[in-house]
Each structure stands twice: as structure tokens, then as C-alpha cells.
Write a structure and sequence with these properties.
With about 240 residues, the chain is mainly alpha-helical. The chain has two domains: about 90 residues, no CATH class; about 100 residues, no CATH class. The chain contains 13 helices and five strands. A three-stranded antiparallel beta sheet has the order 1-5-2, covered by helices on one side. Helix 9 packs parallel to helix 11, helix 9 packs antiparallel against helix 12 and helix 12 packs across helix 13.
Length: about 240
């Protein structure tokens, strides 16, 4: 595979290549969680043991289900907020009784019901790059050479004239984040994978803060791939 080839895009079927759906780890998570997850007493104990108090919440049950059915897939706060809209916690029966002595649930059932098997495209599109932008928001811009490296990144992004003119760390950060938000909002680079989009902000943060040349190389490689004017699902990264 060439340096600038997109292996994931090449492996898509022709319908997917034509429709260009956004790919995301969250679709994999949703696909592996069953349509219905029954909450019996042992399951209830495991869920509340990881939280605080004895009450069940939708988020705590989803967190448990993801850990059980898709181990090794950490979910961020933003991703969890989106995933919560795909599930509902149902309580059926006249009066559900939790018997801690006999460790049983009686009088009804508690179930986690999955409403969608895939994430809505518009939701995924709105999340492009968000995790990386959060990291960039807290990145260190004051180290040796950081301002010069920030200028290099802004020149590659384009439309950052205001940031290039100033030496203020705060203003440079603001211009850079504003530019990236607009880039992802319009998806100017046609990135169709949420995890790849998130790496953009991560690479920029690592280069500006620490001068990480591998991160800058990956950022530059992705920028070169945009010149093909086709959807980008993956790229060959350097370590």
C-alpha cells in the first residue's frame, strides 16, 4: 500500500464508496450490545458497585453493557452523551422489589433496550474532531518554539491570518480552534472516520506542545491526502 493510500476506503463495497457513510467506533459498540439486556440482581450489584449509591441510571447501565459486550473500547464523555440517545432503561411490573437478603428482583423486570443499531449520520458528523479539539483546548502553547510551530500548523490549515499576525498565546489558540471547528463543521477535508478526525487535534497538540515530529508528519500526510478530493477513512501513520 502506498504512503497516501486509504486502505479502509478501498475495502468498502461500491455502495458505501458511493454513499460515503461516516464510520465510527460507536457503530461497532452499538452493533455488539444486544437488543435487550436483562438486569437481574447479580447484574444490578455489579453496576452499582462501580458507581455511587444504589440507584440505577441509564448511563451506568450503558457503561456496564459496553464493558461486558465490547471490552477494550473506552468511551469518552461526548461519546456517552450520544450513545445515551440510542438506549432506554425500562421498568415493567406493578412494583419492582429488590431483595438484598435473598439477592433477587421480583414484581417486575428491569431491562436495557437498544433503540438503534447504528448512530445517526448527523450525530456522527457533528462529533467529527471534537475529542481532539478538547485536547487542543488544554494543550501547552508556551514552550520553547511553540509559537513558531503553531504558525506552521496555521499556515497548513489556511484561513488563520489573524492568528499568524499575533504573538499572543491566547489569541493564537483561539484562532486555531475556531478554524478547526469550521473545518470539521463543513468537513472541508472530507474525513469520514470519527477516530481519524479526532487525531487531527491530538497531532496538532503534540506537535505544538512537545515538538513531536511524528505527530506533525501524520498531520501533513493527512493534509496531502485531501488533495485527492475524495472521502478519507484511514491513512498510514508513522510512529
Amino acid at each position: 500500500m502506498g504512503v497516501f493510500e486509504d486502505k479502509k476506503f478501498e475495502e468498502l463495497d461500491w455502495i458505501s464508496q458511493a454513499t460515503e457513510p461516516i464510520d465510527s467506533q460507536m457503530n461497532e459498540v452499538l452493533g455488539k450490545v444486544p437488543e435487550i439486556v436483562q438486569i437481574d440482581f447479580p447484574t444490578y450489584e455489579k453496576i452499582v458497585h462501580e458507581g455511587y449509591g444504589l440507584d440505577l441510571s441509564l448511563q451506568s447501565v450503558i457503561t456496564f453493557a459496553i464493558a461486558k459486550f465490547t471490552p477494550g473500547n473506552p468511551i469518552s464523555r461526548n461519546q456517552m452523551n450520544a450513545l445515551e440517545k440510542c438506549f432506554v432503561l425500562e421498568f415493567t411490573g406493578d412494583e419492582i422489589v429488590l431483595d438484598f437478603e435473598n439477592k433477587t428482583i421480583s414484581g417486575g423486570e428491569i431491562t436495557l433496550v437498544k433503540l438503534n443499531s447504528t448512530m445517526d449520520e448527523k450525530v456522527l458528523e457533528s462529533m467529527l474532531g471534537s475529542e481532539g479539539l478538547d485536547m487542543l483546548n488544554y494543550a501547552r502553547f508556551s514552550g520553547s518554539g511553540s509559537l513558531t510551530r503553531t504558525n506552521e500548523v496555521m499556515e497548513l490549515l489556511g484561513k488563520c491570518e489573524e492568528g499568524l499576525k499575533t504573538r499572543s498565546e491566547r489569541r493564537k489558540r483561539g484562532v486555531l480552534i475556531k478554524r478547526l471547528r469550521m473545518l470539521f463543521k463543513n468537513n472541508e477535508w472530507k474525513i469520514k472516520d470519527t477516530e481519524l478526525a479526532n487525531k487531527v487535534g491530538v497531532w496538532i497538540s503534540e506537535y505544538i506542545s512537545d515538538g513531536n515530529l511524528s505527530a506533525f508528519s501524520n498531520f501533513c500526510r493527512l493534509k496531502v491526502m485531501t488533495h485527492k478530493d475524495q472521502p478519507i477513512y484511514s491513512m498510514k501513520e508513522v510512529e
